[in-house]
Structure formats: structure tokens, C-alpha cells
């Protein structure tokens, strides 16, 4: 699939003008309506002369290196001068921009440029994907205008169901993919026949033309377009063997434009081309196509000739790829000075050029604009919860950037899965069946999120420097081969490991301890392969030491827990008896045995003193009741 250059807008043809584009969805910026203008390789955010806020790409990019075009003075806009490139030796075969986009449909525009930024005088070959689907292919050598001045490409795509959508770049051979800017904004969910195509198709622009007018669109001129589409001049796509005349609306108002869901701009319908010379002449455009795909063609008309005032005065046939598909009478459909849109899907093409021809029936044909979109089916993606599990493993295992673990683990299928990953297509989507990451210098740990890889058959993480305990999530029923040998795992072996399908378990040369689960050891008994050597703390099965009386699987066994519980109960009972004797059964006159005051706390001394004072008061009361002669006295009489 080579989608490069002919359908793209070459930046050298773009003129700059200050814009007051109130309909530009990019103007609200991120994250107000989930639109983003990303300056790839840029060092800081800035606001352009068109009022757009451009963001440095450091929070969106997975790595790569920043660069600058060789001749920045030839690029009028700042975001066209900087770039980011992704050497496969350090960034891996795939590198992605992750954009926070909720589910919906989005317009995406990329600017790619080479301009000998690396002084190698060779344009790179690489592919681009959106929504895990291959959408653009750049092949060296690029045509000179695109290589020197850069080129824009755009498409409409549905976002993934996850919180982010990835725009990914895939290196061919040793070439470094390169990108200068990325723009994304939401579009109406029903735009471009979204009711039938929105959920399953990406529409890649193979030509969006304004007839009889110069290039216009937000970000490039002061003309607005609600989707920020750029409309190219049609001159380069005409069959130049024919004669054409341009006409305009002469300032008359155009009705029916800029309406949902497509919001086609009014300016598109204020100019048109018609045939020149003989009235029997035709209008013909030659559009580049890929014969492996189908195309959605949109034709735009408006009867802007005041001399046409009734139906039947201008009638023509539309022929696509040599097939007569419809007959059009604009005035009969909508009247004068009113926008009229017509669309058709072309299939089974046999040539790399598709003819779009208007053949006169009555009068001369007229055309205001033309759009041609490749209909790229969405590729099957990895099951979402397995994508999340793989991203968690990427973080916990500390996968190095050179392995290119970016984007969807298994898609697009044109490219291999992530390095060390094997996938399989099932009814629910793509699933991960094997992980082989032996001898990759990994220094992290295994997250329990691995339990979501419910189709995993083989896991090999041997000969790394992984640490931590083995998670219970390693007990997938699907797992047949487990090799965690020659790492630094510690703790016990979870009892979940050892499904009926597990035939090989290599846990040797780690730092595991505790009793080996019987279900795991039974693998070797039933003809499988198990190796637990090199773990000095393991016990409880033949060829290993017996476990301590109260010890099992790195902790107390059932007997040990019962013994510990009984001991704690005995200590509690003794404590309660002592408290009862010392605090509850003592009378008010019990003698206190005290430590010397210099060995007691202030609070203890105070408590003893208070108790002594109560005893002294009783004694004084009894003495005062007797006279000096030993008899009781009565009142104060003497």
C-alpha cells in the first residue's frame, strides 16, 4: 500500500495569511474539545500567527530524537521547521504518539518533511498507522518537492475504545521515520456517511480539490472550514488535453453550505470550472488510486451561472472509472446558487489512475469541488484487557526502548507483533499466546496484571535480573511452558501455578523458598519437566530438604498456625488471671509492695501516695474517737 505524495498537499505551494477562523475546531486547543496541534521536535509551546496553540511533543511521544530541517528559512511556519525522527537502533521498529481521545471520529493531519536534516541525502522509507491500521506508506526516494518542502496528508479515523489513540511510525530496514507536526480534531459522528462507515473504516484523503480557485483552508489562508480541511487547487489533477474555463458566483450568496454533518465551506461553491471551446467537450480529472481498495468519491456542485434559470438547461452524466453512474441536473435538484453534494463508492479498480469525467448532455458541465477517499477497513486489534496487561508488563519488566513496545501489541498485522510477542487471531480479537524475553537484560518484576493474558501458552523470562515474588497471576489455565530460570525471584511459589496443561516449569537458579506446591511438583511425576535446583530455601518434595515442622510455602503451615494460636490464647489467659488477682480481688486495706521511689515513675508514686493517704485518714478518724485516756469522746466536750 503506497499512499504517498500524489494525494498529499506539498507545503511549498502554501501561502500564509493571518486568519480569523472562528469555525476552526483546532482553535479551542487541547483538551477543551480533544483537539491537539503537536509540534514534533519542538522545545516549547507557542501560538501561531493563525491563533492556534501548538504544543511541544514531549508529553505525547514515545522517544526518538528532535531535529531541524536543513534550510529553515524556506518553511514559513514554525511547526514545519522542527521534526522528530526515530532511529530503530534506539527507538525500536515502532514509535508512537499517544493522544488522549475518547471514543469518536477524528480528523488527523500529518506534516512530513526530510530536507536533508541528517545530511545523508536519502529520504527514509516507513509506514504510518492510526487506530492500529496501516494508513500511509512513505517509500524512498520521495519526489523532490515533497523531500525538500515537505508534504501534508490527512484522514478521518475512529478512535480506539481505550483512553488513548496511537499514531505509530514503523521503520523499514534501518531507516528512521520522521514527522514534523500532528494535528487532530473531532468531526461530526455522521460526517462522510458516518452512519454506515464510521465504526469500521478509515477515510484516507487521495485528493480534496477546489475547482477554479486557489488553495484555501484554516492554517493556510484566512478562510474557514469547520473540520480544518485544506482544499487544493485542481490544476495538477486535470486532464490537460482538454480545455477548461473558470466561473465564479460574482459575489452572490450561496445557500445550503456549511451545514452538518459535513460542514462543507461556502467558499467551495463560489467558484467552478466548466468546459472551454466546443460545447461537446468534457471535464476530466485523473485521480491516483490503489487498486486494492475502494474509494468514496464526493462531487460538489452549485449552479452559479445566472443565465441558468430552469431545470433542463444544464444536464450532464458522471462517469467514474469509465462507468456511467448518474445524470445530474443541478437546478432541478436544488435551484440556483445552492450547494448540492453527490457521493458514490467506486470498487474493483484495475488502474492506478481513476478517471472522474463529466460528459455534457445539455449545455456545458460544471464542477465546484471533488473529494476522493480511500476506504481503509479497520484492522482487527488486540483484545483491550490484554493490551492493558501488556502495557503494565512493559512498565514492570522495564522493557528497553530499543524493543519498540509501542502501540498495539499485535496490530497492524502487516508488521510483526512486539519483539518477543506471538499473537493469534480469535473471534474476540487478537490475543497474546507467547512471550519470549529471555536474555534481554530486564531488571524489573512480574506484575500480577499478567493474569489477564488468559490465552498465554508459553512464557520465557529466563536469564534476566528480575526480582520480587512470583505473582498468583502466573497460574493461567492455558499456560503450558513456564521458564523463569536464572533470575533473582524471592519468596514462595504460589499455589496457583500448576494447571493441568503445564508441561514444563523451569524455576531453577533463583532465591525462592518455602514448600513446593504439590500440584506444581506433580508435573514431573506425570511426565513433564520441572527444575527447582539452585533455590536453597525450597523444601518439601523429593530431592529437596524436608520443610521445618511449622513451615510451609514460605510461611507457617496449618499446624504452625494452630500452635501459634494456642500459645497466644494461653498467654492471654494468664494475663487475665494476673489482672484479676492484682486489680479486682484486692481490698481497700491491702498492703502495697512498692519499689524504691527512685525506680518508679512519677505517676506510680502519685498513685501509691493517694492510696496511703486514704489509709491514713481512716486511722486518724479512729484515734480521734478516743480520749486521751483511751475512752471514746462525745463531740467537742472535754
Automatic annotation (TrEMBL):
All copies of domain Malectin-like, residue ranges: 38-374
UniProt keyword annotations, A-Z: Membrane, Signal, Transmembrane, Transmembrane helix
One Pfam family here: Malectin_like
Gene3D superfamilies, per database record: Galactose-binding lectin (2.60.120.430), Ribonuclease Inhibitor (3.80.10.10)
Primary subcellular site in the record, as a coarse category: membrane
Residues that span the membrane, as ranges: 562-583
Annotated Gene Ontology cellular component terms: membrane
Bilayer topology: Single-pass membrane protein
UniProt-listed InterPro entries: Leu-rich_rpt, LRR_dom_sf, Malectin-like_Carb-bd_dom
Protein name (Swiss-Prot/TrEMBL): Malectin-like domain-containing protein
Upper taxonomic lineage: Eukaryota, Viridiplantae, Streptophyta, Embryophyta, Tracheophyta
Gene symbol of the encoding locus: LOC127760035
Amino acid at each position: 500500500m503506497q499512499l504517498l505524495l500524489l494525494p498529499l498537499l506539498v507545503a511549498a505551494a502554501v501561502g500564509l495569511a493571518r486568519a480569523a477562523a472562528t469555525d476552526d475546531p483546532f482553535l479551542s486547543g487541547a483538551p477543551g474539545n480533544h483537539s491537539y496541534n503537536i509540534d514534533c521536535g519542538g522545545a516549547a509551546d507557542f501560538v501561531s500567527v493563525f491563533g492556534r496553540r501548538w504544543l511541544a511533543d514531549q508529553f505525547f511521544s514515545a522517544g526518538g530524537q528532535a531535529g531541524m530541517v536543513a534550510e529553515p528559512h524556506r518553511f514559513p511556519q514554525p511547526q514545519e521547521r522542527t521534526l522528530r525522527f526515530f532511529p530503530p537502533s534506539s527507538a525500536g521498529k515502532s514509535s508512537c504518539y499517544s493522544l488522549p481521545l475518547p471514543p469518536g471520529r477524528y480528523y488527523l493531519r500529518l506534516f512530513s518533511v526530510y530536507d536533508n536534516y541528517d545530511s545523508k541525502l536519502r529520504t527514509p522509507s516507513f509506514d504510518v498507522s492510526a487506530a492500529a491500521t496501516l494508513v500511509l506508506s512513505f517509500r524512498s526516494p520521495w519526489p523532490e518537492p515533497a523531500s525538500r518542502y515537505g508534504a501534508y496528508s490527512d484522514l478521518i479515523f475512529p478512535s480506539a475504545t481505550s483512553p488513548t489513540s496511537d499514531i505509530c511510525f514503523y521503520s523499514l530496514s534501518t531507516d528512521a521515520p520522521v514527522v514534523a507536526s500532528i494535528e487532530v480534531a473531532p468531526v461530526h459522528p455522521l460526517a462522510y456517511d458516518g452512519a454506515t462507515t464510521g465504526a469500521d473504516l478509515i477515510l484516507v484523503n487521495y485528493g480534496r480539490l477546489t475547482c477554479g480557485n486557489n488553495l484555501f483552508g484554516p492554517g493556510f489562508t484566512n478562510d474557514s472550514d469547520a473540520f480544518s480541511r485544506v482544499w487544493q487547487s485542481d490544476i495538477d489533477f486535470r486532464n490537460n488535453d482538454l480545455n477548461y474555463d473558470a466561473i465564479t458566483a460574482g459575489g452572490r450568496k450561496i445557500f445550503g453550505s456549511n451545514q452538518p454533518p459535513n460542514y462543507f465551506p461556502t467558499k467551495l461553491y463560489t467558484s467552478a470550472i466548466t468546459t472551454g471551446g466546443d460545447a461537446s467537450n468534457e471535464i476530466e480529472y485523473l485521480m491516483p488510486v490503489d487498486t486494492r481498495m475502494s474509494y468514496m468519491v464526493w462531487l460538489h456542485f452549485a449552479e452559479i451561472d445566472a443565465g441558468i434559470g430552469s431545470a433542463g438547461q444544464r444536464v450532464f452524466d458522471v462517469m467514474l472509472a469509465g462507468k456511467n453512474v448518474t445524470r445530474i441536473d443541478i437546478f432541478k435538484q436544488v435551484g440556483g446558487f445552492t450547494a448540492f453534494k453527490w457521493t458514490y463508492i467506486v470498487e474493483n479498480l484495475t488502474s492506478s489512475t481513476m478517471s472522474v469525467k463529466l460528459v455534457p448532455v445539455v449545455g456545458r458541465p460544471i464542477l465546484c469541488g471533488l473529494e476522493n477517499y480511500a476506504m481503509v477497513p479497520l484492522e482487527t486489534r488486540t483484545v483491550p484487557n490484554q493490551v492493558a496487561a501488556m502495557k503494565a508488563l512493559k512498565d514492570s519488566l522495564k522493557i528497553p526502548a530499543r524493543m519498540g513496545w509501542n502501540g498495539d501489541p499485535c496490530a497492524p498485522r502487516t508488521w510483526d507483533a512486539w519483539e518477543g510477542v506471538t499473537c493469534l487471531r480469535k473471534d474476540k480479537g487478537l490475543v497474546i499466546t507467547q512471550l519470549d524475553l529471555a536474555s534481554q537484560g530486564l531488571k524489573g518484576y512480574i506484575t500480577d496484571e499478567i493474569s489477564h493474558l488468559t490465552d498465554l501458552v508459553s512464557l520465557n523470562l529466563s536469564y534476566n535480573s528480575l526480582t520480587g515474588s512470583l505473582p498468583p497471576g502466573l497460574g493461567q489455565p492455558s499456560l503450558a511452558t513456564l521458564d523463569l530460570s536464572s533470575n533473582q525471584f524471592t519468596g514462595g511459589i504460589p499455589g496457583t501455578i500448576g494447571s493441568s496443561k503445564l508441561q514444563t516449569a523451569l524455576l531453577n537458579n533463583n532465591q525462592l523458598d518455602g514448600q513446593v506446591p504439590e500440584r506444581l511438583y506433580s508435573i514431573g511425576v506425570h511426565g513433564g519437566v520441572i527444575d527447582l535446583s539452585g533455590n536453597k530455601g525450597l523444601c518439601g518434595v523429593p530431592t529437596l530438604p524436608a520443610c521445618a515442622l511449622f513451615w510451609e510455602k514460605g510461611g507457617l503451615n496449618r499446624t504452625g498456625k494452630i500452635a501459634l494460636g494456642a500459645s497466644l490464647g494461653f498467654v492471654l489467659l494468664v494475663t487475665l488471671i494476673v489482672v484479676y488477682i492484682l486489680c479486682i480481688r484486692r481490698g481497700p486495706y491491702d498492703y502495697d509492695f512498692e519499689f524504691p521511689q527512685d525506680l518508679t515513675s512519677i505517676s506510680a508514686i502519685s498513685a501509691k501516695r493517694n492510696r496511703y493517704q486514704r489509709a491514713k485518714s481512716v486511722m486518724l478518724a479512729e484515734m480521734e474517737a478516743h480520749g486521751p485516756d483511751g475512752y471514746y469522746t462525745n463531740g467537742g466536750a472535754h
